[in-house]
Protein backbone atom coordinates (compact mmCIF):
# COMPACT_ATOMS: atom_id res chain seq x y z
CA UNK A 1 0.00 0.00 0.00
CA UNK A 2 1.51 3.33 -0.88
CA UNK A 3 -0.53 5.51 1.36
CA UNK A 4 -2.22 6.07 4.65
CA UNK A 5 -5.62 7.44 5.50
CA UNK A 6 -4.17 10.13 7.72
CA UNK A 7 -2.83 11.77 4.59
CA UNK A 8 -6.07 12.04 2.78
CA UNK A 9 -5.82 15.76 2.63
CA UNK A 10 -2.23 15.92 1.58
CA UNK A 11 -1.12 19.45 1.11
CA UNK A 12 0.53 18.86 -2.21
CA UNK A 13 -2.64 17.62 -3.76
CA UNK A 14 -4.15 19.83 -6.33
CA UNK A 15 -7.23 19.54 -8.43
CA UNK A 16 -7.78 21.46 -11.58
CA UNK A 17 -10.75 23.73 -11.34
CA UNK A 18 -12.52 25.33 -14.17
CA UNK A 19 -12.20 29.02 -13.80
CA UNK A 20 -14.62 31.06 -15.83
CA UNK A 21 -12.95 32.80 -18.67
CA UNK A 22 -13.38 36.53 -18.80
CA UNK A 23 -16.45 37.40 -20.73
CA UNK A 24 -16.26 39.93 -23.45
CA UNK A 25 -19.83 40.62 -22.83
CA UNK A 26 -19.00 41.67 -19.35
CA UNK A 27 -16.03 43.67 -20.41
CA UNK A 28 -17.85 45.23 -23.26
CA UNK A 29 -20.64 46.34 -21.03
CA UNK A 30 -18.21 47.47 -18.45
CA UNK A 31 -16.31 49.50 -20.95
CA UNK A 32 -19.44 51.39 -21.66
CA UNK A 33 -19.45 52.95 -18.28
CA UNK A 34 -15.75 53.55 -17.90
CA UNK A 35 -15.05 54.85 -21.29
CA UNK A 36 -11.87 56.87 -21.31
CA UNK A 37 -11.78 58.12 -24.84
CA UNK A 38 -11.41 61.86 -24.84
CA UNK A 39 -10.61 64.55 -27.29
CA UNK A 40 -7.06 65.75 -26.96
CA UNK A 41 -8.27 69.29 -26.72
CA UNK A 42 -9.14 70.60 -23.27
CA UNK A 43 -12.15 72.21 -24.77
CA UNK A 44 -15.06 69.88 -24.66
CA UNK A 45 -16.43 71.34 -27.82
CA UNK A 46 -13.37 71.55 -30.00
CA UNK A 47 -13.40 73.48 -33.19
CA UNK A 48 -14.60 71.36 -36.00
CA UNK A 49 -13.17 70.64 -38.43
CA UNK A 50 -9.75 70.33 -36.77
CA UNK A 51 -7.58 73.30 -37.48
CA UNK A 52 -5.06 71.13 -39.25
CA UNK A 53 -7.04 71.16 -42.43
CA UNK A 54 -9.23 73.61 -44.18
CA UNK A 55 -12.88 73.03 -43.79
CA UNK A 56 -14.24 72.97 -47.23
CA UNK A 57 -11.48 72.13 -49.61
CA UNK A 58 -10.52 68.51 -49.37
CA UNK A 59 -13.53 66.35 -49.59
CA UNK A 60 -16.08 69.02 -49.80
CA UNK A 61 -19.48 69.53 -48.30
CA UNK A 62 -18.83 70.48 -44.74
CA UNK A 63 -22.03 71.53 -43.11
CA UNK A 64 -21.95 75.17 -42.14
CA UNK A 65 -21.98 76.06 -38.50
CA UNK A 66 -25.50 77.31 -38.95
CA UNK A 67 -26.54 73.94 -40.15
CA UNK A 68 -24.83 72.30 -37.26
CA UNK A 69 -26.40 74.55 -34.78
CA UNK A 70 -29.84 74.08 -36.12
CA UNK A 71 -29.39 70.35 -36.19
CA UNK A 72 -27.78 70.51 -32.82
CA UNK A 73 -30.89 72.19 -31.56
CA UNK A 74 -33.01 69.39 -32.98
CA UNK A 75 -30.64 66.87 -31.65
CA UNK A 76 -30.50 68.66 -28.35
CA UNK A 77 -34.21 68.54 -28.09
CA UNK A 78 -34.18 64.90 -28.69
CA UNK A 79 -31.18 64.54 -26.49
CA UNK A 80 -32.92 65.38 -23.30
CA UNK A 81 -35.11 62.35 -23.46
CA UNK A 82 -33.37 60.50 -26.16
CA UNK A 83 -31.40 58.14 -23.98
CA UNK A 84 -34.55 56.77 -22.51
CA UNK A 85 -36.17 56.71 -25.85
CA UNK A 86 -33.24 54.89 -27.30
CA UNK A 87 -33.37 52.27 -24.60
CA UNK A 88 -37.08 51.89 -24.97
CA UNK A 89 -36.67 51.32 -28.65
CA UNK A 90 -34.19 48.59 -28.05
CA UNK A 91 -36.37 46.92 -25.45
CA UNK A 92 -39.31 46.94 -27.77
CA UNK A 93 -37.31 45.08 -30.29
CA UNK A 94 -36.62 42.10 -28.11
CA UNK A 95 -39.71 40.23 -29.22
CA UNK A 96 -39.04 40.72 -32.87
CA UNK A 97 -35.82 38.89 -32.68
CA UNK A 98 -37.18 35.88 -30.88
CA UNK A 99 -37.79 34.22 -34.19
CA UNK A 100 -34.11 33.76 -34.58
CA UNK A 101 -33.68 31.03 -32.07
CA UNK A 102 -30.26 30.06 -33.32
CA UNK A 103 -28.98 33.53 -32.67
CA UNK A 104 -30.54 33.57 -29.23
CA UNK A 105 -29.12 30.19 -28.34
CA UNK A 106 -25.75 31.17 -29.54
CA UNK A 107 -25.78 34.40 -27.66
CA UNK A 108 -27.00 32.76 -24.50
CA UNK A 109 -24.19 30.26 -24.73
CA UNK A 110 -21.59 32.92 -25.33
CA UNK A 111 -22.76 35.10 -22.53
CA UNK A 112 -22.85 32.22 -20.12
CA UNK A 113 -19.26 31.84 -19.08
CA UNK A 114 -20.13 31.01 -15.53
CA UNK A 115 -20.77 27.40 -16.31
CA UNK A 116 -24.15 27.69 -14.65
CA UNK A 117 -26.19 27.08 -17.71
CA UNK A 118 -25.53 23.69 -19.15
CA UNK A 119 -28.65 24.18 -21.20
CA UNK A 120 -27.20 27.19 -22.89
CA UNK A 121 -24.00 25.35 -23.66
CA UNK A 122 -25.94 22.48 -25.15
CA UNK A 123 -27.85 24.92 -27.25
CA UNK A 124 -24.60 26.28 -28.50
CA UNK A 125 -23.41 22.89 -29.54
CA UNK A 126 -26.69 22.19 -31.25
CA UNK A 127 -26.46 25.41 -33.12
CA UNK A 128 -22.97 24.67 -34.24
CA UNK A 129 -23.90 21.15 -35.26
CA UNK A 130 -26.74 22.57 -37.24
CA UNK A 131 -24.36 24.89 -38.99
CA UNK A 132 -22.06 22.06 -39.83
CA UNK A 133 -24.91 20.01 -41.20
CA UNK A 134 -25.88 22.88 -43.40
CA UNK A 135 -22.37 23.09 -44.61
CA UNK A 136 -22.30 19.46 -45.53
CA UNK A 137 -25.62 19.50 -47.26
CA UNK A 138 -24.79 22.70 -49.09
CA UNK A 139 -21.58 21.21 -50.18
CA UNK A 140 -23.35 18.14 -51.45
CA UNK A 141 -25.86 20.20 -53.33
CA UNK A 142 -23.29 22.44 -54.90
CA UNK A 143 -21.08 19.68 -56.05
CA UNK A 144 -18.78 22.62 -56.26
CA UNK A 145 -16.32 21.06 -58.68
CA UNK A 146 -14.70 19.32 -55.79
CA UNK A 147 -14.37 15.64 -55.19
CA UNK A 148 -17.32 14.26 -53.32
CA UNK A 149 -17.13 12.81 -49.87
CA UNK A 150 -17.13 9.24 -51.07
CA UNK A 151 -14.39 9.78 -53.60
CA UNK A 152 -11.74 10.75 -51.15
CA UNK A 153 -10.55 7.67 -49.35
CA UNK A 154 -9.75 5.12 -52.07
CA UNK A 155 -9.99 2.19 -49.71
CA UNK A 156 -13.45 3.07 -48.63
CA UNK A 157 -15.11 4.41 -51.70
CA UNK A 158 -18.68 3.24 -51.77
CA UNK A 159 -18.14 1.42 -48.50
CA UNK A 160 -16.70 -1.47 -50.49
CA UNK A 161 -14.29 -2.65 -47.83
CA UNK A 162 -16.19 -4.73 -45.31
CA UNK A 163 -16.04 -3.64 -41.73
CA UNK A 164 -14.68 -0.22 -42.53
CA UNK A 165 -16.69 2.90 -42.49
CA UNK A 166 -15.99 6.48 -43.25
CA UNK A 167 -16.49 8.57 -40.24
CA UNK A 168 -19.01 11.07 -41.49
CA UNK A 169 -18.76 12.95 -38.23
CA UNK A 170 -15.11 13.70 -38.83
CA UNK A 171 -16.11 16.84 -40.68
CA UNK A 172 -18.25 17.87 -37.81
CA UNK A 173 -15.56 17.40 -35.23
CA UNK A 174 -13.12 19.29 -37.34
CA UNK A 175 -15.38 22.23 -37.99
CA UNK A 176 -16.80 22.34 -34.49
CA UNK A 177 -13.35 22.83 -33.13
CA UNK A 178 -12.83 25.73 -35.43
CA UNK A 179 -16.15 27.30 -34.72
CA UNK A 180 -15.81 27.30 -30.97
CA UNK A 181 -12.82 29.60 -31.35
CA UNK A 182 -14.63 32.76 -32.34
CA UNK A 183 -17.79 31.34 -33.85
CA UNK A 184 -17.40 34.03 -36.43
CA UNK A 185 -19.18 32.25 -39.23
CA UNK A 186 -22.14 31.20 -37.09
CA UNK A 187 -22.83 34.78 -36.04
CA UNK A 188 -22.28 36.22 -39.47
CA UNK A 189 -24.54 33.67 -41.12
CA UNK A 190 -27.22 34.22 -38.54
CA UNK A 191 -27.18 38.00 -39.06
CA UNK A 192 -27.05 37.56 -42.81
CA UNK A 193 -30.20 35.48 -42.64
CA UNK A 194 -31.84 38.25 -40.60
CA UNK A 195 -30.93 40.71 -43.30
CA UNK A 196 -32.25 38.50 -46.04
CA UNK A 197 -35.49 38.06 -44.12
CA UNK A 198 -35.80 41.84 -43.96
CA UNK A 199 -35.68 41.97 -40.16
CA UNK A 200 -32.36 43.71 -40.12
CA UNK A 201 -30.76 46.26 -42.38
CA UNK A 202 -27.54 48.15 -42.65
CA UNK A 203 -27.73 51.63 -44.11
CA UNK A 204 -25.11 54.26 -44.81
CA UNK A 205 -26.42 57.79 -44.43
CA UNK A 206 -25.39 61.30 -43.76
CA UNK A 207 -27.41 64.29 -42.74
CA UNK A 208 -29.70 64.58 -45.77
CA UNK A 209 -32.69 66.13 -44.08
CA UNK A 210 -34.98 63.19 -44.77
CA UNK A 211 -37.11 62.69 -41.69
CA UNK A 212 -36.61 58.97 -41.29
CA UNK A 213 -32.87 59.32 -41.71
CA UNK A 214 -32.72 62.13 -39.22
CA UNK A 215 -34.57 60.00 -36.66
CA UNK A 216 -32.04 57.23 -37.15
CA UNK A 217 -29.12 59.63 -36.90
CA UNK A 218 -30.49 61.03 -33.68
CA UNK A 219 -30.92 57.47 -32.41
CA UNK A 220 -27.32 56.73 -33.29
CA UNK A 221 -26.14 59.92 -31.67
CA UNK A 222 -27.91 58.81 -28.48
CA UNK A 223 -26.20 55.43 -28.54
CA UNK A 224 -22.82 57.11 -28.98
CA UNK A 225 -23.58 59.54 -26.16
CA UNK A 226 -24.37 56.67 -23.85
CA UNK A 227 -21.65 54.27 -24.93
CA UNK A 228 -18.91 56.90 -25.16
CA UNK A 229 -19.68 58.87 -22.00
CA UNK A 230 -16.41 60.75 -21.99
CA UNK A 231 -17.08 62.17 -25.42
CA UNK A 232 -18.74 65.56 -25.23
CA UNK A 233 -22.29 65.18 -26.45
CA UNK A 234 -22.06 68.37 -28.47
CA UNK A 235 -19.09 66.96 -30.31
CA UNK A 236 -20.93 63.74 -31.06
CA UNK A 237 -23.88 65.69 -32.42
CA UNK A 238 -21.62 67.82 -34.57
CA UNK A 239 -19.86 64.93 -36.20
CA UNK A 240 -22.87 62.70 -36.62
CA UNK A 241 -24.80 65.54 -38.21
CA UNK A 242 -21.89 66.92 -40.18
CA UNK A 243 -22.48 66.35 -43.87
CA UNK A 244 -18.93 65.32 -44.59
CA UNK A 245 -19.36 62.42 -42.21
CA UNK A 246 -21.28 59.29 -42.99
CA UNK A 247 -22.85 56.82 -40.63
CA UNK A 248 -23.32 53.14 -41.27
CA UNK A 249 -26.13 51.99 -39.01
CA UNK A 250 -27.67 48.71 -37.96
CA UNK A 251 -31.44 49.12 -38.13
CA UNK A 252 -33.72 46.53 -36.68
CA UNK A 253 -37.43 47.08 -37.13
CA UNK A 254 -36.83 50.72 -37.84
CA UNK A 255 -34.79 51.25 -34.68
CA UNK A 256 -31.08 51.88 -34.47
CA UNK A 257 -29.06 49.16 -32.76
CA UNK A 258 -25.67 50.76 -33.35
CA UNK A 259 -23.46 52.30 -35.92
CA UNK A 260 -20.16 53.72 -37.03
CA UNK A 261 -19.69 57.34 -37.98
CA UNK A 262 -16.75 57.97 -40.24
CA UNK A 263 -15.34 60.65 -42.43
CA UNK A 264 -14.21 59.54 -45.87
CA UNK A 265 -11.20 61.50 -47.09
CA UNK A 266 -11.82 60.55 -50.67
CA UNK A 267 -8.81 62.35 -52.13
CA UNK A 268 -6.55 60.58 -49.61
CA UNK A 269 -8.43 57.30 -50.06
CA UNK A 270 -8.73 56.65 -46.38
CA UNK A 271 -11.50 57.08 -43.87
CA UNK A 272 -11.42 58.07 -40.24
CA UNK A 273 -13.75 56.26 -37.90
CA UNK A 274 -14.94 58.82 -35.42
CA UNK A 275 -17.38 56.79 -33.34
CA UNK A 276 -18.39 53.19 -33.19
CA UNK A 277 -20.88 51.69 -30.76
CA UNK A 278 -23.60 49.14 -30.34
CA UNK A 279 -26.38 49.71 -27.86
CA UNK A 280 -25.58 48.14 -24.48
CA UNK A 281 -27.85 45.11 -24.50
CA UNK A 282 -27.00 44.10 -28.05
CA UNK A 283 -23.23 44.01 -27.68
CA UNK A 284 -21.16 40.90 -28.28
CA UNK A 285 -23.80 39.36 -30.52
CA UNK A 286 -21.94 39.98 -33.74
CA UNK A 287 -23.50 43.30 -34.73
CA UNK A 288 -20.21 45.15 -34.34
CA UNK A 289 -18.49 42.74 -36.72
CA UNK A 290 -21.21 42.78 -39.33
CA UNK A 291 -21.39 46.55 -39.09
CA UNK A 292 -17.67 46.82 -39.73
CA UNK A 293 -17.96 44.46 -42.68
CA UNK A 294 -20.71 46.57 -44.21
CA UNK A 295 -18.66 49.68 -43.56
CA UNK A 296 -15.60 48.24 -45.30
CA UNK A 297 -17.61 47.12 -48.29
CA UNK A 298 -19.34 50.47 -48.63
CA UNK A 299 -16.16 52.48 -48.11
CA UNK A 300 -14.35 50.47 -50.76
CA UNK A 301 -17.11 50.20 -53.34
CA UNK A 302 -18.76 53.59 -52.93
CA UNK A 303 -16.10 55.91 -51.49
CA UNK A 304 -13.10 54.25 -53.12
CA UNK A 305 -11.19 54.00 -49.84
CA UNK A 306 -8.29 51.66 -49.22
CA UNK A 307 -7.72 52.18 -45.49
CA UNK A 308 -9.39 53.11 -42.26
CA UNK A 309 -7.78 54.87 -39.36
CA UNK A 310 -9.25 55.33 -35.93
CA UNK A 311 -8.27 56.30 -32.45
CA UNK A 312 -9.54 53.23 -30.68
CA UNK A 313 -10.51 53.44 -27.10
CA UNK A 314 -8.18 51.31 -24.95
CA UNK A 315 -11.08 49.06 -24.02
CA UNK A 316 -12.10 48.57 -27.62
CA UNK A 317 -8.67 47.70 -29.00
CA UNK A 318 -9.52 43.99 -28.79
CA UNK A 319 -12.62 44.50 -30.89
CA UNK A 320 -10.72 46.48 -33.51
CA UNK A 321 -7.96 43.88 -33.67
CA UNK A 322 -10.61 41.26 -34.41
CA UNK A 323 -11.84 43.45 -37.23
CA UNK A 324 -8.39 43.47 -38.84
CA UNK A 325 -7.05 46.70 -37.34
CA UNK A 326 -3.41 46.93 -36.27
CA UNK A 327 -1.50 49.33 -34.09
CA UNK A 328 1.20 49.56 -36.73
CA UNK A 329 0.36 52.25 -39.23
CA UNK A 330 1.45 51.28 -42.71
CA UNK A 331 -0.35 54.04 -44.56
CA UNK A 332 2.11 56.67 -45.73
CA UNK A 333 2.06 59.48 -43.23
CA UNK A 334 1.51 62.22 -45.80
CA UNK A 335 -1.75 60.56 -46.76
CA UNK A 336 -3.27 60.98 -43.33
CA UNK A 337 -1.15 63.28 -41.17
CA UNK A 338 -2.95 66.49 -40.37
CA UNK A 339 -6.27 65.14 -41.51
CA UNK A 340 -7.36 63.28 -38.45
CA UNK A 341 -7.98 64.52 -34.97
CA UNK A 342 -5.86 63.35 -32.04
CA UNK A 343 -7.55 61.84 -29.02
CA UNK A 344 -6.17 61.34 -25.53
CA UNK A 345 -6.35 57.81 -24.23
CA UNK A 346 -6.95 56.36 -27.65
CA UNK A 347 -4.63 54.24 -29.73
CA UNK A 348 -4.23 55.01 -33.39
CA UNK A 349 -5.10 51.93 -35.38
CA UNK A 350 -5.22 51.12 -39.04
CA UNK A 351 -7.07 48.69 -41.21
CA UNK A 352 -6.36 47.99 -44.83
CA UNK A 353 -9.47 47.34 -46.86
CA UNK A 354 -8.98 44.37 -49.12
CA UNK A 355 -9.75 45.23 -52.75
CA UNK A 356 -11.55 41.96 -53.41
CA UNK A 357 -12.94 40.39 -50.27
CA UNK A 358 -16.71 39.99 -50.21
CA UNK A 359 -16.95 41.56 -46.78
CA UNK A 360 -20.67 41.10 -46.35
CA UNK A 361 -20.49 37.49 -47.41
CA UNK A 362 -17.36 36.34 -45.66
CA UNK A 363 -19.15 33.48 -43.99
CA UNK A 364 -19.89 31.84 -47.34
CA UNK A 365 -16.28 32.27 -48.35
CA UNK A 366 -15.07 30.77 -45.09
CA UNK A 367 -17.48 27.85 -45.51
CA UNK A 368 -16.15 27.14 -49.00
CA UNK A 369 -12.56 27.38 -47.83
CA UNK A 370 -13.24 25.11 -44.90
CA UNK A 371 -14.87 22.58 -47.19
CA UNK A 372 -11.95 22.71 -49.62
CA UNK A 373 -9.42 22.25 -46.82
CA UNK A 374 -11.41 19.40 -45.37
CA UNK A 375 -11.54 17.66 -48.71
CA UNK A 376 -7.83 18.15 -49.20
CA UNK A 377 -7.18 16.60 -45.80
CA UNK A 378 -9.31 13.64 -46.79
CA UNK A 379 -7.22 13.23 -49.90
CA UNK A 380 -3.99 13.24 -47.96
CA UNK A 381 -4.98 11.41 -44.83
CA UNK A 382 -7.11 8.51 -43.72
CA UNK A 383 -8.07 10.14 -40.45
CA UNK A 384 -11.73 10.16 -41.44
CA UNK A 385 -11.82 6.37 -41.70
CA UNK A 386 -13.00 4.55 -38.60
CA UNK A 387 -12.22 0.85 -38.31
CA UNK A 388 -14.17 -1.56 -36.16
CA UNK A 389 -12.81 -1.90 -32.68
CA UNK A 390 -10.80 -4.91 -31.59
CA UNK A 391 -11.95 -7.40 -29.02
CA UNK A 392 -9.54 -6.53 -26.30
CA UNK A 393 -10.98 -8.02 -23.17
CA UNK A 394 -8.60 -8.04 -20.28
CA UNK A 395 -7.89 -10.47 -17.57
CA UNK A 396 -6.47 -9.58 -14.22
CA UNK A 397 -3.74 -6.92 -14.13
CA UNK A 398 -4.75 -5.69 -17.56
CA UNK A 399 -3.32 -8.72 -19.30
CA UNK A 400 -5.26 -9.41 -22.54
CA UNK A 401 -7.50 -12.47 -22.58
CA UNK A 402 -6.71 -13.31 -26.15
CA UNK A 403 -3.48 -12.59 -27.97
CA UNK A 404 -4.04 -10.37 -30.95
CA UNK A 405 -1.42 -10.21 -33.62
CA UNK A 406 -0.40 -6.66 -34.18
CA UNK A 407 -0.66 -7.01 -37.93
CA UNK A 408 -4.29 -8.07 -37.46
CA UNK A 409 -5.29 -4.78 -35.88
CA UNK A 410 -7.53 -3.11 -38.47
CA UNK A 411 -6.11 0.06 -39.89
CA UNK A 412 -2.63 -0.22 -38.43
CA UNK A 413 -0.87 -1.02 -41.68
CA UNK A 414 -2.96 1.62 -43.46
CA UNK A 415 -1.69 4.13 -40.95
CA UNK A 416 1.88 3.41 -41.98
CA UNK A 417 2.87 0.70 -39.51
CA UNK A 418 5.37 -1.90 -40.66
CA UNK A 419 6.20 -5.22 -38.95
CA UNK A 420 9.77 -4.17 -38.16
CA UNK A 421 8.38 -1.61 -35.75
CA UNK A 422 6.89 -4.34 -33.59
CA UNK A 423 8.32 -4.51 -30.12
CA UNK A 424 10.94 -1.96 -31.07
CA UNK A 425 12.87 -0.89 -28.03
CA UNK A 426 15.67 1.54 -27.57
CA UNK A 427 17.14 -1.10 -25.32
CA UNK A 428 17.88 -3.29 -28.30
CA UNK A 429 17.64 -6.91 -27.22
CA UNK A 430 15.18 -6.05 -24.45
CA UNK A 431 12.10 -6.43 -26.59
CA UNK A 432 9.61 -9.18 -27.28
CA UNK A 433 10.04 -9.10 -31.04
CA UNK A 434 11.81 -12.51 -31.01
CA UNK A 435 11.50 -15.54 -28.78
CA UNK A 436 14.95 -15.09 -27.30
CA UNK A 437 14.28 -11.40 -26.83
CA UNK A 438 11.06 -12.13 -24.96
CA UNK A 439 12.84 -14.61 -22.65
CA UNK A 440 15.67 -12.23 -22.01
CA UNK A 441 13.26 -9.39 -21.28
CA UNK A 442 11.12 -11.49 -18.92
CA UNK A 443 14.15 -12.71 -17.02
CA UNK A 444 15.48 -9.20 -16.56
CA UNK A 445 12.11 -7.88 -15.39
CA UNK A 446 11.79 -10.73 -12.89
CA UNK A 447 15.19 -9.85 -11.43
CA UNK A 448 14.28 -6.21 -11.16
CA UNK A 449 10.97 -6.97 -9.49
CA UNK A 450 12.67 -9.23 -6.97
CA UNK A 451 15.24 -6.51 -6.21
CA UNK A 452 12.43 -4.09 -5.51
CA UNK A 453 10.38 -6.58 -3.55
CA UNK A 454 13.27 -7.41 -1.24
CA UNK A 455 14.09 -3.78 -0.52
CA UNK A 456 13.33 -2.41 2.93
CA UNK A 457 11.19 0.41 1.50
CA UNK A 458 9.05 -1.86 -0.67
CA UNK A 459 6.32 -2.57 1.89
CA UNK A 460 3.90 0.19 0.78
CA UNK A 461 4.05 -1.04 -2.82
CA UNK A 462 3.62 -4.79 -2.52
CA UNK A 463 -0.17 -4.85 -2.88
CA UNK A 464 -2.73 -2.62 -4.58
CA UNK A 465 -4.12 0.14 -2.33
CA UNK A 466 -7.24 -1.06 -0.56
CA UNK A 467 -10.10 1.38 -1.13
CA UNK A 468 -11.66 0.32 2.17
CA UNK A 469 -8.62 1.73 3.97
CA UNK A 470 -8.24 4.80 1.78
CA UNK A 471 -11.68 5.67 0.40
CA UNK A 472 -10.67 8.56 -1.83
CA UNK A 473 -7.50 6.99 -3.19
CA UNK A 474 -9.00 6.00 -6.51
CA UNK A 475 -10.67 9.40 -6.90
CA UNK A 476 -7.23 10.95 -6.93
CA UNK A 477 -5.10 8.23 -8.50
CA UNK A 478 -6.58 7.19 -11.80
CA UNK A 479 -3.80 4.83 -12.89
CA UNK A 480 -2.81 2.82 -9.85
CA UNK A 481 0.14 0.44 -9.93
CA UNK A 482 1.86 -1.91 -7.48
CA UNK A 483 4.50 -4.64 -7.49
CA UNK A 484 1.99 -7.48 -7.45
CA UNK A 485 0.26 -6.21 -10.58
CA UNK A 486 3.60 -5.75 -12.28
CA UNK A 487 4.56 -9.31 -11.43
CA UNK A 488 1.33 -10.63 -12.96
CA UNK A 489 2.07 -8.69 -16.10
CA UNK A 490 5.61 -10.05 -16.27
CA UNK A 491 4.44 -13.62 -15.71
CA UNK A 492 1.81 -13.34 -18.46
CA UNK A 493 4.73 -12.89 -20.88
CA UNK A 494 2.31 -10.99 -23.06
CA UNK A 495 1.96 -7.64 -21.48
CA UNK A 496 5.36 -6.03 -21.52
CA UNK A 497 6.44 -6.19 -25.12
CA UNK A 498 9.16 -3.65 -24.50
CA UNK A 499 11.28 -2.79 -21.53
CA UNK A 500 10.04 0.77 -21.68
CA UNK A 501 6.53 -0.45 -20.80
CA UNK A 502 7.85 -2.08 -17.67
CA UNK A 503 9.81 1.00 -16.63
CA UNK A 504 6.74 3.15 -17.29
CA UNK A 505 4.68 1.08 -14.85
CA UNK A 506 7.37 1.33 -12.20
CA UNK A 507 7.63 5.07 -12.63
CA UNK A 508 3.86 5.43 -12.40
CA UNK A 509 3.84 3.47 -9.15
CA UNK A 510 6.41 5.84 -7.62
CA UNK A 511 4.75 8.95 -9.01
CA UNK A 512 1.35 7.89 -7.65
CA UNK A 513 2.76 7.64 -4.15
CA UNK A 514 4.19 11.13 -4.41
CA UNK A 515 0.98 12.53 -5.87
CA UNK A 516 -1.26 11.20 -3.15
CA UNK A 517 1.04 11.70 -0.20
CA UNK A 518 2.79 14.83 1.00
CA UNK A 519 6.61 14.95 1.10
CA UNK A 520 6.86 14.58 4.87
CA UNK A 521 5.16 11.17 4.85
CA UNK A 522 6.87 7.79 5.03
CA UNK A 523 5.11 6.76 1.82
CA UNK A 524 6.58 9.62 -0.11
CA UNK A 525 10.07 8.91 1.27
CA UNK A 526 9.79 5.16 0.60
CA UNK A 527 8.80 5.93 -2.96
CA UNK A 528 11.82 8.18 -3.54
CA UNK A 529 14.27 5.69 -2.03
CA UNK A 530 12.84 2.64 -3.79
CA UNK A 531 12.87 4.47 -7.10
CA UNK A 532 16.55 5.31 -6.67
CA UNK A 533 17.24 1.66 -5.89
CA UNK A 534 15.26 0.56 -8.95
CA UNK A 535 17.11 2.95 -11.21
CA UNK A 536 20.51 1.80 -10.02
CA UNK A 537 19.52 -1.85 -10.65
CA UNK A 538 18.24 -1.03 -14.11
CA UNK A 539 21.45 0.79 -14.85
CA UNK A 540 23.74 -1.98 -13.64
CA UNK A 541 21.58 -4.64 -15.33
CA UNK A 542 21.73 -2.83 -18.66
CA UNK A 543 25.48 -2.36 -18.38
CA UNK A 544 25.99 -6.02 -17.53
CA UNK A 545 23.77 -7.04 -20.43
CA UNK A 546 25.73 -4.83 -22.75
CA UNK A 547 29.00 -6.40 -21.61
CA UNK A 548 27.64 -9.92 -22.18
CA UNK A 549 26.55 -8.94 -25.66
CA UNK A 550 30.00 -7.58 -26.45
C1 LIG B 1 -13.36 54.66 -32.40
C2 LIG B 1 -14.22 54.30 -31.27
O1 LIG B 1 -15.36 54.58 -31.26
S1 LIG B 1 -13.54 53.45 -29.98
C3 LIG B 1 -14.88 53.03 -28.97
C4 LIG B 1 -15.58 51.79 -29.37
N1 LIG B 1 -16.85 51.71 -28.72
C5 LIG B 1 -17.03 51.31 -27.46
O2 LIG B 1 -16.12 50.91 -26.75
C6 LIG B 1 -18.45 51.40 -26.96
C7 LIG B 1 -18.87 50.18 -26.17
N2 LIG B 1 -18.74 48.95 -26.95
C8 LIG B 1 -19.50 48.69 -28.04
O3 LIG B 1 -20.34 49.48 -28.43
C9 LIG B 1 -19.32 47.36 -28.72
O4 LIG B 1 -18.97 46.39 -27.78
C10 LIG B 1 -18.27 47.39 -29.84
C11 LIG B 1 -18.68 48.37 -30.91
C12 LIG B 1 -16.88 47.73 -29.32
C13 LIG B 1 -18.21 45.97 -30.45
O5 LIG B 1 -19.49 45.64 -30.95
P1 LIG B 1 -20.10 44.22 -30.67
O6 LIG B 1 -21.38 44.07 -31.36
O7 LIG B 1 -20.12 44.01 -29.20
O8 LIG B 1 -18.98 43.27 -31.34
P2 LIG B 1 -19.12 41.76 -31.85
O9 LIG B 1 -20.23 41.08 -31.10
O10 LIG B 1 -19.21 41.76 -33.32
O11 LIG B 1 -17.75 41.17 -31.37
C14 LIG B 1 -16.72 40.86 -32.26
C15 LIG B 1 -15.56 40.28 -31.48
O12 LIG B 1 -14.95 41.34 -30.74
C16 LIG B 1 -14.94 41.02 -29.37
N3 LIG B 1 -15.16 42.24 -28.63
C17 LIG B 1 -16.26 43.02 -28.63
N4 LIG B 1 -16.05 44.07 -27.84
C18 LIG B 1 -14.80 43.96 -27.35
C19 LIG B 1 -14.01 44.75 -26.48
N5 LIG B 1 -14.45 45.88 -25.96
N6 LIG B 1 -12.76 44.30 -26.19
C20 LIG B 1 -12.29 43.14 -26.70
N7 LIG B 1 -13.00 42.38 -27.55
C21 LIG B 1 -14.24 42.78 -27.86
C22 LIG B 1 -16.08 40.03 -29.20
O13 LIG B 1 -15.91 39.22 -28.06
C23 LIG B 1 -15.99 39.23 -30.46
O14 LIG B 1 -14.94 38.29 -30.36
P3 LIG B 1 -15.05 36.82 -31.03
O15 LIG B 1 -15.30 37.03 -32.49
O16 LIG B 1 -13.73 36.19 -30.75
O17 LIG B 1 -16.17 36.15 -30.34
UniProtKB/TrEMBL annotation:
Q: What spans are recorded as compositionally biased (Acidic residues)?
A: 80-99
Q: Where is the N-acetyltransferase domain?
A: 200-354
A Pfam family hit: Acetyltransf_1
EC numbers for this chain: 2.3.1.48
Keywords for this protein: Activator, Acyltransferase, Bromodomain, Chromatin regulator, Nucleus, Transcription, Transcription regulation, Transferase
Q: Which residue stretches belong to region Disordered?
A: 1-101, 116-157
Q: Where does the Bromo domain lie?
A: 453-524
| Gene3D superfamilies, sorted | 3.40.630.30, Bromodomain-like (1.20.920.10)
Q: Which family does it belong to?
A: Belongs to the acetyltransferase family. GCN5 subfamily.
Protein name listed in UniProt: histone acetyltransferase
User: Which organism is this entry from?
Assistant: Prunus avium
Upper classification of the organism = Eukaryota, Viridiplantae, Streptophyta, Embryophyta, Tracheophyta
Q: Which gene encodes it?
A: LOC110763443
